[in-house]
Amino acid sequence: MRSQLSGPPPERGLFCNRTLNLRAIKAVGYDMDYTLIHYRVEAWERRAYEHIRDRLVAQGWPVGDLQFDPALAIRGLIIDTEKGNLLKANRFGFVKKALHGTRAMDFITQRDEYSHVVIDLHERRWVFLNTLFSLSEACLYAQLVDRLDAGVLPGPMGYADLYEHVRKNLDATHMQGQLKAEIIADPERYVLDDPETPLALLDQRNAGKKLLLITNSEWAYTEPMMHFAFDKHLPQGMTWRQLFDVVIVSARKPEFFTTRSALFEVVETNGEALLRPHSGPFKAGTPYFGGSAVELERHLGMSGDEILYVGDHMFGDVHVSKSELRWRTALILRELEDEVRAIASFRSTEARLAERMVLKERMEWESCQLRLELQRRRADYGPRSDTPPEAELVSRLGELRESLEALDAELAPMARAATELSNPIWGLLTRAGNDKSHLARQVERYADIYTSRVSNFLFATPFVYLRSPRGSLPHDPSLPGGTPVFPAADGGGGMADAE
């Protein structure tokens, strides 16, 4: 185990959007799947994919040869169910990259389809991939669009009908419990063991914080999975159930945060779990089914910014608990570790790219000035000079054009490599071209902090004061030692101290 005093590697940091004093947090709630328990994404999603595909085969669809492609989809993409496309959008909702089915759209087609479209996730047309559980669904849908276009699927059917059919079969797979039964039977195959997570929660509990488990998974799945992931790493004689002050299963998030539903006690009898209506205070060590956040707040005697909720689902965990209850929020993005490492490995190339782009912008600026000077001379208007002669301006403009073409040839492979970091099709999770991705905007807006795994709290301790960085704007200095916010009185360019 890495020493806490040495600090975490960069990819395991806690990244702060809004200042958060963890000492002021009285209760920490956790989701389970992909939050407290991390799965081997490719193994889980491949098996989920196979279950859906096999259901379609049983319904007579000619899709038995399809195989899961782990690179085809990433979290944060958007499915356009009207047109059968997978999209990556920037923070403003403008489409920056598009696949129709599994095929990349060329520039002209993408422009024609989306130049006048701004994605609004409130519209039913768009499906946002909120979590890693969405990858199998998106992969299969994209492949089925290819089959639909080829005319080999049952019909008549449109792209929206196709999506609904995939979604219905995915829900049926989870409802029937076949996949989860396989996970319970062989957890080593699907679960990434992390002995640091129980220790991080023990630190929080012993620092006086109430710990809450609020998961959509049912008790029959939650109990064996938490036992597998936690009990072997807890002090002797302690089980995961003793770690949490409140355990709520089948919570139905996001409705758990927005509506009031009946609360049931899970009663274990002869190896079976039965439900008994419950009213009054929660009992320690007893799991509950359903209920609501309002009821939980009343039991805890806490509300709003006294509670931190940690989950992996952008909408169901973070967005709704923030917007409806004003809980503090933490988003778990396991992919962040690969992303941070990829950015670090690209740093030298990125520096070279930035340096050459500065030169490109200077040459473009000079070229624009020369073109304007020639335009004014030929149209005989505006302030201008007769020197140097026009032939000299034309010659210099030609030199700049040739230099820019050569520079573009040098920049092209570096720029292309920048768009393929982490994923050869979609690039970085948090970037869309040179801008923030739509996912990054959601993270920025609703997650007070974000990190790759719960055990990263171990390095921060339960007493950390997390401070957000100073917000950046396009006119801010982009390099260390750039234009100061408040120029020093002596003109030296130093940064003035400010509270």
TrEMBL record:
Region (Disordered): 475-499
Entry superkingdom: Bacteria
Annotated Gly residues bias: 490-499
Cross-referenced InterPro entries: HAD-like_sf, HAD-SF_hydro_IG_5-nucl, HAD_sf, Pur_nucleotidase
UniProtKB keywords: Hydrolase, Magnesium, Metal-binding
Gene3D superfamilies: HAD superfamily/HAD-like
PANTHER family linked to this entry: 5'-NUCLEOTIDASE DOMAIN-CONTAINING, HAD-SUPERFAMILY HYDROLASE, SUBFAMILY IG, 5'-NUCLEOTIDASE
Family (UniProt): Belongs to the 5'(3')-deoxyribonucleotidase family.
Protein name in the entry: HAD-IG family 5'-nucleotidase
Species this chain originates from: Myxococcus landrumensis
